[in-house]
């Protein structure tokens, strides 16, 4: 789907994270630095056409648009946008099937992913791909894990 990145300057500011419980679950709606987004976080939709610097997270038991369902780290080396797109394909494969319970091709859900920009790759050693699932039918409450949608 869409490649999105994170701002180097934002990352240098130390960012801000949500109020989380002992298990790392978001406790209340908050606008956080994108580098504070974690596996399992639920969030409101972003404009996925450019760099994303902030994310509005909410507890997963509240209505939300998106959920981070898988993370993958890329190997070191030179920044390669084509390699990042290939790495992003993991979001549509077995990781999706394992999370939702059906293959992406058979699902009504959609996927996109966050990935490093050339700047974050080179200046922050950013190698993280985060897979995000969304329901085009509208906001969901609770996790989409095992939903078989």
UniProtKB/TrEMBL annotation:
Pfam families: Septum_form. InterPro entries: Septum_form. It comes from the Bacteria. Residues 40-135 form the Septum formation-related domain. This is Septum formation family protein. It comes from Microbacterium istanbulense.
């Amino acid at each position: 789907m869409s490649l999105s990145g994170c701002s180097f300057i934002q990352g240098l500011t130390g960012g801000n994270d949500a109020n989380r419980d002992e298990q790392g679950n978001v406790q209340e709606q908050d606008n956080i630095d994108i580098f504070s987004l974690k596996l399992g976080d639920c969030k409101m939709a972003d404009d996925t056409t450019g760099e994303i610097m902030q994310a509005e997270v909410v507890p997963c038991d509240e209505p939300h648009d998106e959920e981070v369902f898988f993370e993958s780290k890329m190997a070191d080396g030179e920044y390669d946008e084509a390699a990042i797109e290939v790495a992003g394909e993991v979001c549509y494969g077995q990781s999706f099937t394992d999370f939702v319970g059906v293959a992406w091709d058979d699902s009504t859900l959609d996927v996109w992913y966050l990935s490093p920009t050339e700047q974050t790759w080179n200046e922050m050693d950013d190698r993280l791909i985060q897979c995000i699932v969304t329901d085009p039918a509208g906001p969901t409450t609770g996790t989409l894990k095992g939903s078989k949608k």
